[in-house]
Amino acid sequence: MNEQLALRLADAWIAAWNRHDLDAILQHYAPDVEFTSPFVSALSGEPSGTIHGRIPLRAYFQKGLHAYPDLHFELIRTLTGVDSLLLYYRSVNGLLAAEMMTVNRDELIQSVRVHYVKE
Protein backbone atom coordinates (compact mmCIF):
# COMPACT_ATOMS: atom_id res chain seq x y z
CA MET A 1 0.00 0.00 0.00
CA ASN A 2 1.46 3.34 -0.96
CA GLU A 3 0.50 6.68 0.51
CA GLN A 4 -1.19 7.90 -2.70
CA LEU A 5 -3.51 4.88 -2.82
CA ALA A 6 -4.29 5.19 0.89
CA LEU A 7 -5.15 8.89 0.59
CA ARG A 8 -7.24 8.32 -2.54
CA LEU A 9 -9.19 5.50 -0.87
CA ALA A 10 -9.66 7.52 2.33
CA ASP A 11 -10.95 10.60 0.50
CA ALA A 12 -13.36 8.60 -1.68
CA TRP A 13 -14.60 6.55 1.30
CA ILE A 14 -15.25 9.63 3.47
CA ALA A 15 -16.96 11.46 0.59
CA ALA A 16 -19.26 8.49 -0.12
CA TRP A 17 -20.28 8.29 3.53
CA ASN A 18 -20.90 12.02 3.75
CA ARG A 19 -23.15 11.81 0.66
CA HIS A 20 -24.93 8.82 2.26
CA ASP A 21 -24.37 7.04 -1.06
CA LEU A 22 -24.65 3.37 -0.14
CA ASP A 23 -23.60 2.07 -3.56
CA ALA A 24 -20.49 4.29 -3.58
CA ILE A 25 -19.63 3.20 -0.03
CA LEU A 26 -19.93 -0.49 -0.86
CA GLN A 27 -17.85 -0.30 -4.04
CA HIS A 28 -14.79 -0.04 -1.77
CA TYR A 29 -15.37 -3.45 -0.14
CA ALA A 30 -14.46 -6.93 -1.37
CA PRO A 31 -17.39 -9.34 -1.83
CA ASP A 32 -16.07 -11.51 1.02
CA VAL A 33 -15.18 -8.64 3.38
CA GLU A 34 -14.98 -9.25 7.13
CA PHE A 35 -16.16 -6.21 9.11
CA THR A 36 -15.88 -5.97 12.91
CA SER A 37 -17.27 -3.03 14.90
CA PRO A 38 -18.71 -2.35 18.37
CA PHE A 39 -21.87 -1.08 16.61
CA VAL A 40 -22.53 -4.38 14.80
CA SER A 41 -24.25 -6.03 17.78
CA ALA A 42 -26.53 -3.04 18.39
CA LEU A 43 -27.54 -2.44 14.77
CA SER A 44 -27.61 -5.96 13.35
CA GLY A 45 -28.12 -8.19 16.37
CA GLU A 46 -24.96 -10.15 15.52
CA PRO A 47 -23.45 -10.92 18.95
CA SER A 48 -19.96 -11.59 17.58
CA GLY A 49 -19.67 -8.00 16.36
CA THR A 50 -18.54 -9.25 12.94
CA ILE A 51 -20.28 -9.19 9.57
CA HIS A 52 -19.10 -11.49 6.77
CA GLY A 53 -19.76 -10.48 3.17
CA ARG A 54 -20.72 -7.37 1.24
CA ILE A 55 -24.44 -8.25 1.05
CA PRO A 56 -24.93 -8.41 4.85
CA LEU A 57 -22.66 -5.36 5.14
CA ARG A 58 -25.04 -3.44 2.85
CA ALA A 59 -27.95 -4.18 5.20
CA TYR A 60 -25.88 -3.11 8.22
CA PHE A 61 -24.75 0.15 6.61
CA GLN A 62 -28.32 0.86 5.48
CA LYS A 63 -29.51 0.52 9.09
CA GLY A 64 -26.70 2.80 10.21
CA LEU A 65 -27.58 5.49 7.69
CA HIS A 66 -31.22 5.26 8.75
CA ALA A 67 -30.37 5.36 12.48
CA TYR A 68 -28.06 8.37 12.02
CA PRO A 69 -29.64 10.59 9.34
CA ASP A 70 -27.22 13.44 10.13
CA LEU A 71 -24.16 11.19 9.89
CA HIS A 72 -21.06 13.07 8.84
CA PHE A 73 -17.45 11.91 9.04
CA GLU A 74 -14.50 14.28 9.43
CA LEU A 75 -11.20 12.73 8.40
CA ILE A 76 -8.39 13.61 10.79
CA ARG A 77 -5.54 11.39 9.61
CA THR A 78 -4.75 8.55 7.24
CA LEU A 79 -1.97 6.15 8.23
CA THR A 80 -0.45 3.72 5.74
CA GLY A 81 0.71 0.15 6.39
CA VAL A 82 2.08 -2.66 4.24
CA ASP A 83 -1.27 -3.88 2.90
CA SER A 84 -3.50 -1.74 5.08
CA LEU A 85 -4.47 1.73 6.12
CA LEU A 86 -5.91 3.24 9.24
CA LEU A 87 -8.45 6.03 9.05
CA TYR A 88 -8.69 8.24 12.12
CA TYR A 89 -11.83 10.37 11.98
CA ARG A 90 -14.66 11.99 13.90
CA SER A 91 -17.76 9.84 13.62
CA VAL A 92 -21.39 9.85 14.83
CA ASN A 93 -22.25 11.62 18.07
CA GLY A 94 -18.78 13.15 18.27
CA LEU A 95 -17.04 9.80 18.69
CA LEU A 96 -13.46 9.48 17.58
CA ALA A 97 -13.06 6.45 15.35
CA ALA A 98 -10.14 4.48 14.01
CA GLU A 99 -10.71 1.93 11.27
CA MET A 100 -7.91 -0.43 10.35
CA MET A 101 -8.58 -1.74 6.84
CA THR A 102 -6.63 -4.39 4.98
CA VAL A 103 -6.74 -4.01 1.22
CA ASN A 104 -6.54 -6.85 -1.30
CA ARG A 105 -4.77 -6.96 -4.69
CA ASP A 106 -7.83 -5.46 -6.37
CA GLU A 107 -7.53 -2.44 -4.04
CA LEU A 108 -10.75 -3.42 -2.25
CA ILE A 109 -11.17 -3.44 1.50
CA GLN A 110 -10.83 -7.06 2.64
CA SER A 111 -11.14 -6.70 6.42
CA VAL A 112 -12.00 -3.94 8.86
CA ARG A 113 -11.57 -3.47 12.59
CA VAL A 114 -13.33 -0.40 14.00
CA HIS A 115 -12.49 1.27 17.32
CA TYR A 116 -14.25 4.19 19.07
CA VAL A 117 -13.61 6.51 21.99
CA LYS A 118 -15.53 9.45 23.43
CA GLU A 119 -13.56 12.60 24.08
Task: Characterize the structure shown.
The structure is a single chain. This protein is an alpha+beta fold and 119 residues long. The chain has a single domain, classed as Roll (Nuclear Transport Factor 2, Chain: A), CATH 3.10.450.50. The chain contains four helices and six strands; from the N terminus they run ααβαβαββββ. A hairpin with a 3-residue loop joins strand 3 and strand 4 (84-90). The longest helix is centred in the N-terminal third of the chain and has 17 residues, at 3-19. The chain starts with a helix and ends with a strand. The model has no long low-confidence stretch (mean pLDDT 94).
Main traits of this protein?
4 helices; 119 residues; alpha+beta; globular; six-stranded mixed beta sheet; 6 strands; 35% helix; Nuclear Transport Factor 2, Chain: A
Q: What's the short version?
A:
Helix content is 35%, strand content 35%. The protein has 119 residues and is of the alpha+beta class.
